[in-house]
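Researcher: Sequence recovery benchmark, item below. Answer with residues only.
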């Protein structure tokens, strides 16, 4: 990519693609609010870090002007960041790496930073390796940000993102934050996503007429509000990629049946057939064969295996979508759930709370050996799957309830000193009602899992602060690379209640 001027061909929008994605106005530096962990808020923390606390925003560059910049930092939102020569403004440059010298076009100005399109890399960083890029849409699609970076570089960056999240969003004294652990790699760096949801826009009213041109079908163009036509996504598993191709054909052939734009569901399902093997007449390790296909009906059931655990759930319901890492991940979570005092002992006297349990991932993969389990999720469909999946996988002492996460506290009769709790909320994190009831109950061990390390930092900061650092201490923080090639990271934090 370096040294080549290719506007509209991998480095920026095509001619005419001027529409800037309409976004909520980003809160500016110094405003106070309960953090939401939004993209804008995270970006602003990085801007603040680069500019320092005391600064007067400098004059904004002219919109659509071109500027040459040196990239000094990779931000937590996955964009390269550069500071202006006078130190008063940050430029946000997609697909840029620290050490790159680039030419950018200014697209939109905010008081302290400017959003840009990358026009040209004139001197590539030693950290950039464009030969690693494996997708022809990279540089225009908003899905991946890091294909030009090695796997190790991505992991180290994500570890820094978690550290910065703790520093900027937890409100904790640094002495209360343990060193951030390394980010565990994903066995697959591409071809890992078991679910993709490409989409297309439709006419404002009246539906697609017979013979109407086929709309672009794909993912959002980076920094714009419209769809980039994508024929294939190599981040998806083979089954999902095949499904993508046939769904594109289906839409083209049946366009007139769509009243408006739509999101297509592509979700992998696995049919596993075992061939029993016997040694000396006794059944031994069973070999199996998997046939993987793509389901597109959100109500149809899909099957997924994690080690020996089998999960069946509706295709449209939530499930972690990098299967290749889930066995390693759930084994890790299981180890963290052991109450330290009980380590090495039979922990049949201990109990598990699975908050935001979905279709039962942690209750089932980590729940063997617990004396009792209770899970909660707002989705009745997921709870129905959790109940069936638990029974099918030999977990017979679990109860699952449908409701807001805090509803679980009225149903718990476990002794808190023998109770571990896994908390895996959606991106927005937990609300204070849930957290305050959690503190009141005081389970001995907490394992917080999140796909948004910023709301995770906010919530565990709150838990620790409420007890003035005396109730809960943070034992471990780190991450798993659920989403290689993207800026996302799955974070975890392990907390113990002081006795
Ligand atoms: C990140 S997913 C985790 C699901 C599950 N632990 C897993 O790993 O498969 C978050 C889950 O929280 C549920 N959820 C969202 N808001 C909730 C709320 N207010 N109370 C309870 N569950 C909620 C969603 O239905 C979803 O299943």
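Model:
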């Amino acid at each position: 990519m370096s040294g080549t001027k290719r506007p509209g061909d991998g480095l920026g929008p095509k001619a005419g693609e001027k529409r800037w994605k309409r976004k909520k106005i980003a809160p500016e530096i110094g405003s106070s609010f309960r953090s939401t962990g939004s993209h804008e808020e995270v970006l602003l923390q990085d801007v603040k870090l680069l500019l320092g606390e005391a600064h007067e925003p400098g004059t904004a560059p002219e919109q659509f002007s071109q500027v040459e910049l040196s990239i000094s930092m990779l931000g937590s939102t996955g964009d390269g960041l550069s500071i202006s020569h006078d130190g008063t403004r940050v430029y946000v440059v997609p697909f840029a790496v620290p050490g790159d010298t680039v030419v950018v076009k200014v697209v939109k100005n905010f008081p302290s930073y400017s959003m840009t399109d990358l026009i040209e890399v004139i001197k590539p960083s030693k950290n950039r390796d464009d030969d690693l890029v494996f997708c022809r849409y990279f540089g225009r699609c908003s899905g991946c940000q890091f294909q030009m970076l090695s796997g190790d570089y991505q992991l180290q960056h994500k570890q820094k993102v978690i550290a910065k999240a703790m520093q900027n969003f937890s409100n904790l004294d640094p002495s209360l934050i343990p060193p951030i652990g390394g980010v565990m790699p994903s066995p697959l760096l591409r071809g890992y996503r078991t679910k993709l949801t490409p989409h297309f826009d439709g006419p404002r009213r009246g539906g697609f007429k017979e013979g109407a041109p086929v709309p672009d079908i794909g993912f959002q163009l980076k920094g714009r509000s419209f769809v980039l036509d994508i024929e294939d996504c190599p981040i998806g598993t083979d089954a999902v990629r095949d499904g993508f191709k046939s769904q594109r054909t289906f839409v083209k052939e049946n366009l007139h049946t769509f009243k408006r734009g739509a999101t297509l569901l592509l979700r992998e399902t696995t049919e596993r057939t075992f061939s029993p093997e016997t040694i000396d007449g006794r059944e031994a390790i069973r070999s199996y064969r998997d046939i993987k296909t793509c389901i597109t009906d959100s109500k149809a059931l899909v099957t997924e295996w994690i080690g020996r655990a089998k999960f069946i759930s509706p295709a449209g319901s939530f499930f972690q979508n990098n299967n290749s890492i889930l066995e390693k991940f759930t084994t890790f979570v299981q180890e963290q759930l052991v109450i330290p005092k009980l380590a090495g002992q039979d922990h049949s006297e201990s109990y598990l709370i699975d908050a935001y349990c979905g279709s039962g991932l942690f209750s089932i993969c980590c729940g063997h050996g617990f004396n009792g389990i209770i899970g909660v999720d707002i989705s009745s469909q997921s709870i129905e799957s959790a109940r069936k999946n638990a029974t099918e996988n030999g977990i017979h002492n679990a109860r699952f309830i449908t409701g807001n996460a805090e509803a679980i506290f009225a149903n718990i009769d476990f002794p808190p000193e023998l109770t571990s709790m896994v908390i895996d909320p959606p991106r927005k994190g937990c609300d204070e009602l849930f957290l305050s009831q959690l503190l009141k109950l005081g389970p001995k061990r907490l394992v917080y899992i999140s796909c948004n390390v910023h709301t995770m930092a906010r919530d565990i900061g709150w838990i620790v602060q409420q007890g003035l650092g005396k109730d809960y201490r943070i034992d471990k923080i780190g991450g798993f690379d659920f989403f290689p090639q993207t800026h996302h990271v799955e974070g975890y934090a392990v907390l113990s209640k002081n006795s």
